[in-house]
Structures
1.
Amino acid sequence: MQRNSGKTFKAIVIGVSTGGVTALKKLLGGLPTDFPLPILVVSHISPDSDDGLAVLLDTLCSIHVKEANEGELIMPGTVYLAPANYHLLLERDSTIAFSIDSPVNFARPSVDVLFESAADVYNKTLIGILLTGAGNDGSKGMLKIKNRGGTVIVQDPVDAEMDSMPKSALQLLKADYVVCLKNIPELLHNIVEGKL
Amino acid sequence: MTQMTGDEISDIEIKLLMEGLFQVYGHDFRDYSEASLRRRLNQWLSTSGFATISLAQSQLLRDRALFETLLRGITVNVSEMFRDPSFFKAIREHIVPYLKTYPFVKIWHAGCASGEEAYSMAILLIEEGLQGRFRIYATDINEEVIQKAQGGIYPLQELQHFTRNYQNAGGTGSFSDYYTARYDHAILSANLRENIVFAAHSLAVDADFGEMNMILCRNVMIYFKQPLKERVLALFDSSLITGGFLCLGTKETLDNRNISSQYETIVPRMQIYRKRYAKK
């Protein structure tokens, strides 16, 4: 229980694939408008998608949700979604970068690309969350976050619409928390407030 | 002084190497955005057999062949034919009518990678009746990739995707008329290549191209830091005729740049801009 005490967190990254819309509605829907950290999300979407998912989530959630813009400085209380067909990365000055490098794990945007670049920037002050999805994108990224001293949360495979992404991560690393989706907002609140 | 972390040290190694590569080979990556550069360098490093950038540096600065492998790794830009079909549709519907008013149209495709988008533009302009009235100057920093672009040969497995893009981009013909399939590759028709001049050109160090009617530079500057972005935009500005068109990637914008005020937005979400006629 001492594990995270005294830690201050700077950002949260979330990776999700199949079942993403429902999962993000639940998770982000449970966060308050004044949530104290910026949140970056990679959700696997088809290459020709527009910003519809961000617009939808923004209307359903109290926290502000938007599609990420290139060069944008990330702010607390805001959720940034990776646009379709671009990898989302983070620069050391906490601004958003894009790349059209080849798909990673058959995905662009790829969860691993975001997680690994965010781990480079935030090290132990980063929280990584891996949710439902097919395939294994995000596992390597979660391992890097963990190795850099960050906190990793994996959706309980039993609770996930598709369990292979969470399962794959759990085979690679020991998560700090394995929880059901509905409990993540409260868990985040407690972690960020230093109650855990 | 406290010991630096491994990350901090590797950031310094990258800076030192970029300075060395510039001085030895003239290739300037000092103003490339770090996140992608770091990822690409680490990928190269993991296949190179060197444990750190510093250990690789000595040989990189002396062995051009090794440097070429690194160059390939950090400048590779992937593309596809008719990437963002709605962009090409917008060109067809909103820009081609202007281009048709000129006796001859010159287009600079900056950062053309393996040529997919340059060929896409050639197909579009031919379908719009501009055959023989346009030339595309397609440039990239990477000479190897330019050679590949000249060949116009792509894996057959990608053609299905290209065909779908072509249709969504408002193609008026049959995409299969533009290539011949051989074994597992497709070679694009020679008459497309006739309209394109491929050349090596570095946006970071080389000079402008004159008198262009349209410049496309899509998803290239996303890898550049602000000062290099400004340099490249100034280069484009001096290469573009008044009333010419500047096209960026759909997630790039001309907002808050030095040249912004001289440009008007023509197709908002597609990032197609036009250089204004001088104010009277």
2.
Amino acid sequence: MAFEKIIFYLFSAILVLAALRVITARNPVHSALFLVLAFFSSAAIWVLLEAEFLGIVLVLVYVGAVMVLFLFVVMMLNINIAQLRAGFIRYLPLGAAIGLVVVAEMAIVMIRNFGLDKVARPAAKAADYNNTEAIGRVLYTKYLYAFEIAAVILLVAIIAAIALTMRRRKDTKHQNPSEQVRVRKQDRLRVVKMDAEKKQ
Amino acid sequence: MNIVMPNFASVLPEMFVLGMACAILVIDALLSGRRKVITYSLSQLTLLGALILTVMHSGEKEVVTFGGTFVRDTMGDFLKVFIYVITAVVFLYSRDYIKSRGIDKGEYYVLGLFGMLGMMIMVSAHSLLTIYLGLELLSLSLYALVAFQRDNAVASEAAMKYFVLGAIASGMLLYGMSMLYGVTHSLDIGKIASYIASHQEQQMILAFGLVFVVVGLAFKLGAVPFHMWLPDVYHGAPTSVTLYIGTAPKIAAFAMAIRLLVDGMQGLAAEWQAMFMVLATLSLAIGNIVAIAQTNMKRMLAYSTISHVGFLVLGILAGTREGYVASMFYTITYAIMALGAFGIILLLSRKGFESDQLDDFKGLADRSPWIAFLMLLIMFSMAGVPPTVGFYAKLMVLQTVIDVDMLWIAIVAVLFSVVGAFYYLRVVKLMYFDKPSGSGSLIEAGIDTRVIVSSNAILVLLLGLFPGGLIALCRLAFA
């Protein structure tokens, strides 16, 4: 038990620190990498919670695919950090004060009212318990409706992304080969008759 | 394990809308640019089909299916029917607008339909999971619609603000839901309600989760102090999208509040009533006072929305059946009024002229007396002048609040309504007593839009004269 607790606190500490660095790091690439660390630590905590399938999927999907793409985007975009940070110092005191008050209030409520003596401990699963199987059993049965909606949300995300980016820009110049071939002399050339200049 | 077959008949409208939206998406991709009328007609047919399916299966008793994630009941059916009708009118009003602004792509209607599907899911959700997913589906479609006019910098900025603030609100809501799940071990709204009823000693930690749920809810409703996104989004979005955001989603948000708080957390009523009291008072105050300072019609109507949300919250806060009925009546009539107000702005606008400044309404009575009269009806209704429906809706809400001995909040509501009447009546004054300034507006809209705008505004008057039918229907929903 004690060993599990140590691991839990270790990964939780890493998670909180990494999450803080995501928003404080100066370099956006560093922020993205810290986000990877945050995902990885939460995956470790999920594994501790006996949700090993979810933990592995989090690493595979988010760290492996989403964050890599995200890093590409961050590197390709030319983000002006100075501009992003312009208001940071000005709003920091107020933001930090409110944040601290909220955290303190939450801590008071949580410590007083949430704990093993207040809410029953969930029963530990047997050694041969299989998280993948448990999810597989309910995903297409009990949670079919929610699963389908999640699929629709992804579809909407695709439609929205395409609808917003696929457009004919006004400032790009396209070539139309068939028009180029069909062009006639009269369209391009204009014969101007001019009187010969007189010698002065 | 034994598998319980879900009752597919009760989700027929949702399945139909989803199937049609996907079909329209494909059909539209194959159509050439000039035949957008097919996309439009198919979208309207989808709404009609969903309406028929919903009405066909209504009147039965409550059905909870899909492992307790979906519920079909009278309130759900009733609200869905209103959502279909309002979405249909939104599409009709938008048609000319998006055509002249060069954004009449098929995705406009498809995203509108998907957003509506999100509302339907929210309306008949019976689990925290479905509420959240429905809300996300709605919000995602709306973010995309706000940004639809890509060359418009103001719209892009509004979409960005909406997206970031909406994401924060979703995060808050999700955190609250996770706390509720942690304590009650269930996502099912019925099970959460029975757990709360039998575990009074855990009131505090449940209230902790509730706080975040209410914050998320207030964000989505646009109640003060979580209203910051609303004026910018209403102002920045293309008017046809503002029309959409300002009407049907309010009905869905009302359903979400009822499902979460009344169906799910009735045991914590004392807690959320106190929170709602703050939200209602602040919304009424800020909404009505700040609206006076606006010169842009869309921005003014955004603040007016905030004040109307105050009334909506007031009805739920009363905590009685009559209160929910009054709040539902208020939500539906507000959606109809907002539909008319934005519809008229759309009607008066044309390419290169948005007609969304207050000054654009100067002397409207000289130019087009009929439209001015319709606007007069809607403004009177929003201000709560009898015999329009706005008066009746406000009266019902105030009545229920007084019935539960919260006289002071009723007085506050009345006082701020009087303040609010100023800026509604100012529009009337501009239309009837001021000289036109500059560009006389030429109405280009088709005959169908004119007829619907007219009947929309007349409906506001008729419902005010004969509110009995709608009230009876609202009562039925909470029987």
3.
Amino acid sequence: MKTKQIITAYAVTIILFLCCPAFLNRYWVDVLNNVGLYAILGLSLNVILGYAGLFNMGHAAFYAIGAYTAAILNTKFGVPVLLLIPVAGVFAAVFAAVVARPIIHLRGDYLLIVTIGMVEILRIALINDLFGITGGSNGIYGIGRPEIFGFKIKKPHEFFYLIWLFVAITVFFFNRLENSRFGRALNFLREDEVAAEGSGINTAWYKLLAFILGAFWAGMTGVLYATKMNFISPESFNFWESVVIFMIVILGGSGSIMGVILGAFLVVGLPEVFRDFANARMLFFGAAMIVMMIFRNEGLIPPKPKKFVLDA
Amino acid sequence: MEQFFQQLTNGLAVGGIYALIALGYTMVYGVMKLINFAHGDLFTLGSYLGLSLLTSLALTENIGAFMGVIALAILVMALVGIVGVVLERAAYRPLRESPRLSAVVSALGASIVLSNGIMLIYGAKYLFYPQNILPSMTIPIFGLPVPLMRIIILVTSLVMMAALYLFIQKTTIGTAIRAAAIDQGAARLMGINVDMVIMMVFMIGPALGGAAGLMVGLYYGNINFTMGWVYGLKAFTAAILGGIGNIPGAMVGGILLGVIESLGAAYISLAWKDAIAFFVLILILIVRPTGLLGERVAEKV
């Protein structure tokens, strides 16, 4: 009975949400699109930060690799954007594997600092036009639009459905992941690495896998961003981008899918509502981070503790 | 040769500034095992307060250039030290018993609050220190001209570091700080007021950072509300390079990093200047996480 009501409530919310673009203007639909993009990014970071407990503050680097892969392959070789989504994901995943391998053993705050260093080095590399293909500080213009069966997605209203479809896929996939052997192993090593190692979990390998998976997903999101914006530049992927994604996960509730989505609405959507105070919004978020950590350090919607019912 | 010498002295001056900031990181890390992300912004606050006091009090005109700058430095250090203590009370003390990530996130929040607070008060544009507060002359060393400012910065930072080292090694409070860094619980049992120690650390570290902020203002002339972030990261790299938690290590690491960066920018690539520190950081953490003069950093199980 109760679960039925909850399902109905969810269904109604989702249907109402999907009708939103019909009543909103371009601007607000675009805001919702950004919320969607950041929700996916937050969910991908959630694998690393929430499930595995690895302090990764360089997530924008993976996002950037995905976006740049798509931009370069699309503008130079004319590969269709939708086809590039998995390709860019693979590039980001390979990058993560190479970069994360030597630093994966670093504990807590050292990892945080090194990942900040990683994203900064990548940004400087992009500005300096590494290999002459990244367009330097001007970035890359004229990235193509996605095309499905001859229908070109151009307007924010059309992107809305593409992006939120991707959010839905992400939620479905990560929900499955959370309850899988892999997800449980990550939770275990977050809670107690030594015990996890003692129980036969190859912690270094699982940590690396968490990085690779999170990066793969962020890379795919980068393609959506690149095609939506039509243009990318190194400044879109600076360190503060990583901080915003980090805040979404921490404030929403790390390890909880609903929490991360709520976090995306609050961190990305709310400032648009209070645009008059645009300058003070970072100040407000900084203060919110401190207050949240003092009074509710598990985030707004923390993950529910798992229950395992024994067969009688 | 001349270029090498100029880059070397520039690196030593910048290194002295990094070392002063690094001391704040390393002291806080030593006692609380926390990376104080807000430290870089306290450094920025120092340079902004320095500019405000310089223009409003006109100390340099009233009591002479050198005395004026010294008085200014003392004022800035005192004010930033107070802000540091308030910061610890507000953002870190309630989290002393919380998981580590909470304190780190709170520190990041404090960093954002400070830098954006500075932006709201002073604006987002670059601000400029008045020119020629100190005479911009050069002094010949080995027959090559060296700007006086570089010598003043290097000497002042070395003096401050030496004073801090003696304070930590010779005084009772210094001994208490060292004891609390080794084992807080045991220190408390020995009758050391650990809260007081942490307060001292949060006063001395930011005060030194504030002095470094003033030096940057005087040396480069322009300041911006975001600069604390880059300086903070580089100083943190310096602290790790020397071995975090280790006070002489922070000094050696800071000066070494300044020289590496200055020479790297001149001989490798100017465009990659800001990345050099991060490469050093990643390299040192992979190869020798304990730093050059390292103490143990292995995690207790």
